[in-house]
Amino acid sequence: MRPSLRQKAITICTDKIAKKGDTVGLSFYAFFANKNDDPVQLMEAAEWWIKIHALDHFEKAAKIRALLQSGQ
């Protein structure tokens, strides 16, 4: 995952956790606006989420943030 997308995703996870607590869940769609204005980056996030890590549709934001911060 490109560094800019990784940092954006970490920031979004951190914001969600701050607002809703440690048990808040999210999907990779949370990293994007409600419109498909960057399909390449959306597919990059989807591949990281689904193909590389085989994650469920919704996962705990804390788990996703930890994966992202570890460089996985």
Structure description:
The chain contains 3 helices and 2 strands. The chain has 72 residues and is mainly alpha-helical. A two-stranded antiparallel ribbon has the order 1-2. 17% of the residues are buried. The mean pLDDT is 93.
Summarize the structure.
The protein has helices at residues 3-20, 39-52, 61-69, and strands spanning 25-26, 59-60. With 72 residues, the protein is mainly alpha-helical.
Derived structural class = mainly alpha
Proportion of beta-strand residues: 5-15%
Side-by-side strand order of the widest sheet:
1-2
Count of beta strands: 2
Query: What sort of overall outline do the alpha carbons produce when their principal axes are compared?
Result: globular
**How much is the radius of gyration in Å?**
11 Å
Q: Detail the poorly predicted runs.
A: none
Percentage of residues assigned to helices: 55-70%
What average pLDDT do the residues reach?
Answer: 93
End-to-end Cα distance = 9 Å
Give the SSE string: HEHEH
Main beta-sheet strand count, sense and barrel state: 2 strands, antiparallel
Figure out the total of helices.
Answer: 3
SSE blueprint and pairings:
Blueprint: H1 3-20, E1 25-26, H2 39-52, E2 59-60, H3 61-69
Antiparallel strand pairs: 1-2
Helix pairs in contact: 1-3
Throw out a few tags for this protein.
3 helices, 72 residues, mainly alpha
